[in-house]
Amino acid sequence: MGGRTFRAIMIGMGLMTLTGCSTKGQVVTLDVQAVAPGGDAAGKAMGGDTNVAVGSFEDGRPQKNQIGVRHHLFGGETPFDVAGGKPGEVVGRVMGEYLKRKGWSINPNGAPDVAVSGKILDFSADADSKLFSTEITVRTKVVVEAMNKADGSIVRMTLNGDGSQRVFWFEPEDVQKLLSEVLTESLEKLVVNTKMEDRQLRLK
Fold first, then answer.
1. CA distance 51 to 187
2. CA distances (Å), 52 to each of 35, 155, 185, in order?
3. Which of 60, 96, 122, 191 has the most crowded Cβ, counting Cβ within 10 A?
4. Dihedral angle over CA of 201, 95, 71, 16, nearest 10
5. What is the pLDDT of residues 57-89, one digit of tens each?
6. Is pTM beyond 0.70 here?
7. Residue 68 near residue 126, CB atoms below 8 Å
């Protein structure tokens, strides 16, 4: 085997290694979870025994077939989606987990004092692979509506989140982790800007 041929094969193998594992055409399911920004521990009880129920969110995105895609270096795409293909259920679950961690009394089975739901306007994750790196971008935009049972009043808030990350060696877990962090961090606005009074949620 000539030296030129050997060098060409080695270069080809190197490029294959740099692009990471290939999943072209296969849908990658992202397991989005609530995380603790900054390593925060569970918060103090908020509102005592005020019962909060967090339901599923309406999917108001124009395109509902998937949440994003990875563009591969040498062509082709890998779609991203969440389990069951229902971001509304994922957002509701993550919100419930995060609020419980922050000290809210979350009880989806009992009669709620405050019922939280809303609409997803953006929930996306994309990755663009180039030579030696992959750029990951995620965006979330969720309209939250919390209805107080006592007087029927509603607290509305729009939670925005976005983030990007450049990685040398791409793994689907990179997208999953970034999307989890961005969604969770956007929920902090709800915690910081509201308070419980007389078993009702109010803006500060």
1. 18
2. 20, 13, 20
3. 96
4. 150
5. 999 999 888 999 999 998 899 999 998 899 999
6. yes
7. yes
CA Rg value for the chain: 21
In this structure, what DSSP letter does residue 46 have?
Answer: B
DSSP 3-state of 175 = helix
- For residues 105 and 45, the answer to whether their CB atoms sit within 8 Å is yes
Q: Are 46 and 190 in contact (CB under 8 A)?
A: no
Q: Report the amino acid identity of residue 78.
A: T
Taking alpha carbons only, the member of 148, 174, 146 closest to residue 158 is 146
Q: Which amino acid is at 155?
A: V
Asked if 58 contacts 109 with a C-beta cutoff of 8 angstroms, the reply is no
- 27's CB contacts (< 8 A; 6+ apart) are 66, 78, 79, 80, 81
* Phi, psi dihedrals of residue 5, rounded to the nearest 5°: -65, -45
Q: What's the CA gap between 123 and 3, in Å, rounded? A: 50
